[in-house]
């Protein structure tokens, strides 16, 4: 579902954020992405979302090579990738329902279908009874659940999470991870960037470890003949 083939990313200031990174994640696989600050985690996620393009190598998502994807097709790609942020990025002038409905409204889903799909997403994260509330009335864990509901309301095959439990205590963090596990069990490919080594260890999942832009654990050997 996600494949990196000898991916290198250099920026204009001559900083190399990723160096010949190789890995693939299967459909329904849940994995962690870790490494020190500046190791390249955010760059790797940006390449999957096509916020950046690789300098060399190939990034493939759902069989689509992203390197040469026309700009006009980027919004379509992003509809198939759910993203969960550490700080939720919720709008506090809108209700929980309206926050979750936003991706559907942007993509032109008929109004008659939005209510059903939003409530299904809220039900999955245990917040069906909170739909009329303002996010500011919710706890930090509940706000993160709203962010997850918004990320999955389009039923994306890929779910990315950038430090999703960074502001939560261990018990709430475990609850959030259980939600991610449930999504992977129904075929969603889940990649979670995290610094929480204890949590990662307890989950017992595959861990991709970056060190100064190189994938030093959890990947695969360099392929022969891959174009760079």
Helix-strand blueprint:
Blueprint: E1 2-10, E2 16-25, E3 30-35, H1 41-48, E4 56-61, E5 64-65, H2 74-78, E6 81-85, H3 96-106, H4 111-124, H5 140-152, E7 158-162, H6 170-185, E8 189-193, H7 197-203, E9 206-211, E10 214-217
Parallel strand pairs: 3-8, 3-9, 6-7, 7-8
Antiparallel strand pairs: 1-2, 1-4, 4-5, 9-10
Could you describe the 3D structure shown?
By secondary structure, the protein is α/β, with parallel strands linked by helices. It folds into 2 domains: 1-80 and 157-218, P-loop containing nucleotide triphosphate hydrolases (Rossmann fold, 3-Layer(aba) Sandwich); 89-155, no CATH class. Helices cover 32% and strands 25% of the residues. The chain has helices at residues 41-48, 74-78, 96-106, 111-124, 140-152, 170-185, 197-203, and strands at 2-10, 16-25, 30-35, 56-61, 64-65, 81-85, 158-162, 189-193, 206-211, 214-217. Strands 6-7-8-3-9-10 form a 6-stranded mixed beta sheet, with helices on both faces. It is globular, with a radius of gyration of 18 Å. 37% of the residues are buried.
Question: What is this structure, in a nutshell?
Answer:
The protein has 228 residues and is of the alpha/beta class.
Mean pLDDT over the full residue set: 91
Measured distance between first and last alpha carbons: 20 Å
List the total number of helices: 7
| Basic shape | globular
The largest beta-sheet arranges its strands as 6-7-8-3-9-10
The CATH architecture assignment of the largest domain turns out to be: 3-Layer(aba) Sandwich
So what's the oligomer here?
single chain
Global structural class:
alpha/beta
| Uncertain ranges | 221-228
């Amino acid at each position: 579902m996600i494949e990196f083939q000898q991916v290198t990313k250099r920026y204009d200031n001559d900083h190399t954020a990723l160096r010949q990174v190789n890995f693939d994640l299967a459909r329904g696989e849940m994995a962690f992405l870790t490494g020190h600050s500046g190791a390249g985690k955010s760059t790797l996620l940006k390449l999957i979302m096509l916020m950046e393009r690789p300098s060399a190598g190939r990034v493939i998502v759902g069989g689509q090579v992203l390197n040469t994807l026309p700009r006009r097709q980027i919004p379509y790609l992003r509809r198939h990738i759910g993203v969960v942020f550490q700080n939720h990025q919720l709008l506090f002038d809108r209700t929980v329902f309206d926050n979750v409905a936003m991706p559907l409204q942007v993509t032109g889903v008929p109004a008659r279908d939005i209510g059903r799909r939003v409530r299904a997403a809220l039900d999955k994260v245990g917040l069906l009874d909170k739909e009329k509330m303002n996010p500011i009335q919710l706890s930090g864990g509940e706000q993160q659940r709203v962010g997850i509901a918004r990320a999955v309301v389009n039923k994306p095959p890929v779910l990315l999470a950038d430090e999703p439990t960074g502001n939560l205590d261990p018990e709430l963090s475990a609850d959030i991870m259980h939600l991610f596990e449930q999504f992977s069990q129904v075929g969603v490919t889940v990649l979670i960037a995290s610094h929480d080594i204890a949590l990662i260890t307890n989950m017992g999942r595959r861990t991709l470890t970056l060190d100064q832009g190189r994938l030093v654990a959890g990947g695969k050997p360099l392929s022969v003949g891959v174009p760079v």
